[in-house]
């Protein structure tokens, strides 16, 4: 048959091509994705071939930290870095499957720590990033000036009418971000008997856009947001005071009726990476910077038209003393 | 993309549409529906707000599914089913992907482009070589070469496995009526199932990563492979088979020497469809950590940044076009030409030679950074058209979405169920009606009534808009051949694009709201609807049109009294296709603020406490899809011969 011989020839050409060029790119596939028997000995080392799999969670502050670490790993230590665009929880699952070596900015997640670090023993903590993180509810500054007491949660119901939108079904709207973000919103609203509905904007970008418009065009907006974030240096926002956080008030996710705790953001790495990640692991472990550092890079990425890589390079060129301290001896 | 426009097994051609006008006194036709609507409205007014089923994040089915997940998590390495079957499957498929990926990555980029072009030359000559070569070269120009190779590897792995399973099954089904009857319902479900719904179960069994992405892609891309192959084998001329058997050929010989060669063209089509379906699924699979271009698209979606998504989106479209032309060219019968081997050989050799000269990585200076200008354009568009897009969005939301959603969510569940039963019975008959009812009640039992009603609202609004647009464009195309010629390539291109791409313009224009999903699904579902309508109207015999015109009807009368009624089947089929496609897209729209079930699915693999809800929501979308399909399938069960031909092509 004609087609048969044609296909055979094609296969021949391809095989030949493979044979001729096999010496070209030396990108070895990793064989670490073994789940059948998670090998406690760490026989399969992820970094043996010099590849680090870095999860990228969907907010720009995270992206900034990841970009800087990735750049240093590539440029200064000669590793290959795979950036994996993943949601928070999925990233943790990646520790188990071998898809992920490093989460560079973890927000709390005590339940996941318990599951993957204590029970499954596939991940370990790798110290603080130096960033202090806190989640909260915010309104644009103009509302504070016009509506006294709006930053007290006890007055929120009084002003609920202001926050009504086409998506909020007759209640006040609380704009939320990416569905994967850490969230107690539903419980807080229910337990504090607030006449509000959580409307999910879907992304950090949606929050930023709405917040900017709200302040510029004097529109009402109540939204979920977090610090560190570059937005605070550009737009005046005021935090709503929920009942203050006390130790353990957020243990039962259904009964939360308090504000978020201030978190010491930390790094989590897979067990394998900690055991055999060599210099790459040392760098990740040593990495620590301030909220200002992160905001500078994040601001460049978002507002100055830079790619994450370029923004990271700019910061690295400007702050040699800081990152040199992270490099393994 | 021709998701559902594939083939359902042959149905005996329908008898000519009988005109059922008995000379008996009857009520006018509109009375029954009007009475029905009036009764429903009355019941609604009386019972409004009672027996609603409000959503509860902690519903029992969700908690149960969470427990199942925890159990699987704890026993993944002890339970024999996992130890000896699922984990091996995962390892095997993952290994295959690694091998394919390593092979493709080992090729330097000039060699990969040149080899593809050479394959194109072999298959179809200069033009195909050009399309294939340029298509693959575009990955580099767009700055996404490595990610494209990952996507290619994942697609090839999934296609390879799909064909390995699908072709034999298809051949078997083509030769045995019983097998066909056995697998058809399963294939039906697989094709109605919105792609999103697979992901939860995949993560449960195969965890995240390329292996589960491959399996998810396979589920999506196998049905056309089986169906089209079965049809191809079945349609082989009985005389040829008779001749072969009477010459003493064994069954195996008949299969190899008669069935397969004669069905070759159609089987190539099956391969092609499989590739196209796989391409659109590998993008979505990025949500469960599949490598490749999908990751960029997810990143762009989560940053509402079109500039990040566009290069990846274009690369997928070009990959689709290149593979499409390449595969289809192998089906066209051609005379063998020595020179073609020579040219292909030269091309391949040149590419391999070049890879020693050119840098190992695609040089950055040869990239065309479309991101920043596109971002600027989008930003300009957003502010310049803000008033217009806001107005459209608000009118549609306040005028269509909100009232309908209020109606559906404040109606008692039994009233909605009753309406579905009556409607389905009238359109499609008793059996589909009870299937539809069963699906709806199952949704309620899953604890997802309210969210299903929200999704249903979005789907209904999108379907109405899709049909309006589709009818208008289809009629225009049927009437004006020159316009049709203009529109056809656009439709072709639109149908090769994976569903995700349509979120881009929607997101750029409307931000993240329910209307964004509506807009995306309309754009997604209009092309096949236009095509069905156009073909249906063109299918009206010329003699009938002549007769109507010569007896003095106006064009409008011709359209409403002759063409629409006679093309009724095609139009109903278009409605059916439109609904299934819209549902798939509305669910994906959960990523851009669509709410409802789609959002539950997204939460399901974003928050571990919502896993059960996401899983159940996936199941609910399937049930909703079956329900909508059964309601409208009255047309599908009896396709006329020309529609069948069209659905294959």
UniProtKB/TrEMBL annotation, chain A:
Keyword Ribosomal protein: no
Listed GO MF terms: transmembrane transporter activity
Entry's Gene Ontology cellular component terms: ATP-binding cassette (ABC) transporter complex
Alphabetized InterPro entries for the sequence: ABC_Gly_betaine_transp_sub-bd
Keywords from the named record: Signal
SUPFAM superfamilies in alphabetical order: Periplasmic binding protein-like II (SSF53850)
Signal peptide, first to last residue: 1-22
Top-level taxon of origin: Bacteria
Residue span, ABC-type glycine betaine transport system substrate-binding domain: 51-317
Annotated Pfam families: OpuAC
PROSITE patterns hit by this protein: PROKAR_LIPOPROTEIN
Keyword Signal in annotation: yes
CDD domains: PBP2_BCP_2
Protein name as catalogued: Glycine/betaine-binding protein
Automatic annotation (TrEMBL), chain B:
Region (Disordered): 1-20
InterPro entries: MetI-like, MetI-like_sf
Keywords: Cell membrane, Membrane, Transmembrane, Transmembrane helix, Transport
Keyword Membrane applies: yes
TM regions (residue ranges): 30-47, 106-123, 128-147, 153-173, 266-288, 308-327, 339-358, 413-446, 458-479, 499-526, 570-599, 611-628
Domain called ABC transmembrane type-1: residue spans: 148-327, 452-632
Biological process according to GO: choline transport; glycine betaine transport
Bilayer topology annotation: Multi-pass membrane protein
Domain of life: Bacteria
Compartment(s) of residence: Cell membrane; Membrane
Matching SUPFAM superfamilies: MetI-like
Molecular function, one GO term: amine transmembrane transporter activity
Gene Ontology CC: one annotated term: ATP-binding cassette (ABC) transporter complex
Family per similarity comment: Belongs to the binding-protein-dependent transport system permease family.
UniProt-recorded name of the protein: Glycine/betaine ABC transporter permease
Species this protein is from: Sinosporangium siamense
């Amino acid at each position: 048959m004609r087609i048969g011989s044609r296909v055979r020839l094609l296969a021949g050409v391809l095989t030949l091509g493979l044979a001729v060029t096999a010496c070209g790119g030396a990108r070895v596939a990793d064989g670490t994705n073994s789940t059948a028997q998670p090998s406690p000995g760490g026989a399969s080392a992820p970094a043996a071939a010099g590849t680090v799999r870095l999860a990228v969670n969907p907010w720009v502050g995270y992206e900034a930290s990841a970009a800087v670490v990735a750049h240093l790993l590539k440029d200064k230590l000669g590793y290959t870095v795979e950036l994996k665009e993943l949601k928070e929880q999925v990233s943790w699952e990646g520790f188990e499957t071998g898809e992920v070596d490093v989460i560079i900015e973890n927000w709390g997640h005590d339940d996941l720590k318990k599951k993957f670090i204590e029970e499954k023993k596939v991940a370990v903590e790798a110290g603080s990033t130096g960033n202090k993180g806190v989640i909260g509810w915010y309104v644009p500054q103009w509302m504070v000036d016009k509506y006294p007491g709006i930053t007290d949660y006890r007055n929120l119901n009084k002003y609920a009418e202001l926050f009504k939108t086409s998506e909020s079904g007759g209640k006040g709207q609380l704009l939320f971000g990416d569905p994967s973000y850490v969230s107690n919103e539903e419980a807080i609203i229910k337990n504090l008997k607030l006449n509000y509905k959580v409307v999910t904007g879907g992304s950090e970008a949606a929050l930023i856009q709405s917040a900017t418009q709200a302040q510029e065009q004097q529109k009402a907006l109540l939204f979920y947001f977090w610090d560190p974030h570059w937005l605070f240096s550009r737009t005046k926002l005021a935090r709503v005071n929920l009942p203050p956080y006390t130790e353990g008030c957020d243990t039962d996710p259904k009964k939360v009726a308090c504000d978020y705790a201030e978190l010491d953001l930390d790094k989590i790495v897979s067990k394998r990476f900690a055991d055999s990640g060599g210099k790459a692991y040392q760098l990740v472990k040593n990495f620590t910077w301030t909220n200002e550092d992160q905001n500078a890079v994040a601001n460049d990425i978002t507002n100055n038209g830079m790619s994450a890589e370029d923004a990271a390079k700019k910061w690295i060129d400007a702050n040699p003393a800081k990152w040199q301290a992270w490099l393994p001896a | 993309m021709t998701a559902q426009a594939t083939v359902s097994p042959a149905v005996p051609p329908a008898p000519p549409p009988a005109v059922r006008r008995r000379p008996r006194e009857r009520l006018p036709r509109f009375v029954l529906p009007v009475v029905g609507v009036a009764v429903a409205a009355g019941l609604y007014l009386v019972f409004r707000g009672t027996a609603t089923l409000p959503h509860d994040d902690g519903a029992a089915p969700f908690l149960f599914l969470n427990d199942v997940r925890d159990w699987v998590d704890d026993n993944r390495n002890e339970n024999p089913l996992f130890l000896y079957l699922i984990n091996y499957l995962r390892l095997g498929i993952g290994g295959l992907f690694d091998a394919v990926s390593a092979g493709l990555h080992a090729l330097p980029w000039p060699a990969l482009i040149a080899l593809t072009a050479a394959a194109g030359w072999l298959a179809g000559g200069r033009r195909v070589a050009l399309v294939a070569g340029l298509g693959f070269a575009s990955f580099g120009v767009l700055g996404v070469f490595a990610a494209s190779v990952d996507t290619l590897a994942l697609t090839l792995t999934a296609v390879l496995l799909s064909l390995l399973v699908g072709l034999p099954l298809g051949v078997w089904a083509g030769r045995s009526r019983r097998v066909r009857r056995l697998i058809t319902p399963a294939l039906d479900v697989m094709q109605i199932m919105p792609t999103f719904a697979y992901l939860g179960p995949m993560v449960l069994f195969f965890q995240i990563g390329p292996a589960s992405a491959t399996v998810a892609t396979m589920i999506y891309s196998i049905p056309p492979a089986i169906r089209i192959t079965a049809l191809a084998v079945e349609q082989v001329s009985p005389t040829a088979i008779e001749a072969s058997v009477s010459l003493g050929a064994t069954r195996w010989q008949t299969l190899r020497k008669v069935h397969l060669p004669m069905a070759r063209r159609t089987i190539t089509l099956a391969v092609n469809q499989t590739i196209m379906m796989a391409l659109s699924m590998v993008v979505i699979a990025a949500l469960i950590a599949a490598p490749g271009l999908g990751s960029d698209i997810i990143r762009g979606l989560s940053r509402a940044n079109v500039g990040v998504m566009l290069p990846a989106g274009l690369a997928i479209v070009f990959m689709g076009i290149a593979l499409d032309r390449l595969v289809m060219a192998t089906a066209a019968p051609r005379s063998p030409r020595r020179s073609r081997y020579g040219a292909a050989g030269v091309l391949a050799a040149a590419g391999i030679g070049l890879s020693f000269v050119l840098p190992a990585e695609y040089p950055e200076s040869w990239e065309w950074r479309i991101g920043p200008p596109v971002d600027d354009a989008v930003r300009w568009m957003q502010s310049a058209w803000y008033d217009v897009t806001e107005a459209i969005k608000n009118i549609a939301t306040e005028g269509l979405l909100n009232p309908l959603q209020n109606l559906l969510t404040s109606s008692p569940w039994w009233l909605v169920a009753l309406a579905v039963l009556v409607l389905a019975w009238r359109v499609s008959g008793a059996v589909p009606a009870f299937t539809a009812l069963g699906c709806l009640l199952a949704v309620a039992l899953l604890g997802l009534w309210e969210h299903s009603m929200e999704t249903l609202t979005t789907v209904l609004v999108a379907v109405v808009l899709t049909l309006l647009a589709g009818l208008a464009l289809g009629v225009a195309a049927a009437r004006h051949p020159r316009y049709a010629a203009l529109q056809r390539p656009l439709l072709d291109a639109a149908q090769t694009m994976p569903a995700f791409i349509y979120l881009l313009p929607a997101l750029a224009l409307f931000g993240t709201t329910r209307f964004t999903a509506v807009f995306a699904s309309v754009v997604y579902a209009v092309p096949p609807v236009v095509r069905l309508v156009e073909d249906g109207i063109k299918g009206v015999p010329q003699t009938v049109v002549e007769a109507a015109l010569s007896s003095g009807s106006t064009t409008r009368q011709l359209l409403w009294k002759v063409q629409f009624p006679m093309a009724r089947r095609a139009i109903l089929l278009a409605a059916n296709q439109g609904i299934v496609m819209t549902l798939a897209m509305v669910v994906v729209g959960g990523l851009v603020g669509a709410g409802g079930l789609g959002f539950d699915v997204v939460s399901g693999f974003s928050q571990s406490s919502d896993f059960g809800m996401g899983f159940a929501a996936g199941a609910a979308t399937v049930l909703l899809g079956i329900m909508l399909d059964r309601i409208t399938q009255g047309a599908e069960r009896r396709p006329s011969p020309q529609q069948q031909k069209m659905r294959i092509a």
